[in-house]
Amino acid sequence: MLTRSVASAFATVFPAELPDKTMMATIVLTTRYRRLAWVWGGAVAAFAVHVTVAVAAGSAIALLPEVPVRVAVAALFALGAVMLFREARRSGEASDELETAVEGGSARAAFAGSFALILLAEWGDLTQLATASLAARSGDAVGTGVGALAALAVVAALAATFGRRLVARVPIHKVNYVGAAVFAALAIWTAVELAA
After folding, report:
1. What is the number of alpha carbons within 13 Å of residue 128 lying toward its C-beta?
2. Between 101 and 146, where is the model more confident?
3. What is the extent of the structural domain holding 177?
């Protein structure tokens, strides 16, 4: 039963999360912070919170207040866009020495920023609702939780790895401009979903 629940949760959550906005956010966070392990760790920690809530709450997760969560997510993405745009302007003009100094102190910021963004962005998301439904249907909260968390961790690893390769090939200020555009688009997308 445990193996079936793990496989079912993984098979359901992985394809649902792969093209999700959270994957794009993880890529942007990785390119922004240049700390693959810390971004991945923050994302997985946030996913662990979501999976725990989903399997514990079961289908009741759908009753969480959707409007305030989506407003907060849209605001956070908009704030991220502004911050990335400012950083892109600064890093385009900054020396390598200044950039290294900023990079050296950003491990904690990478973990905390990734955790906070993914925690908010994923709240009430399709994969969390799917996990809650699977846990309620299967009666195996542990197996469902393990499978869902494994799927989310793999997607975050793929995104973080891709983001790391992007940083190696593209100047960081250009990545920050692209990141700002992605975050702005995610803010708009979230706001449109809220209005619909």
Report:
1. 25
2. 146
3. 2-195
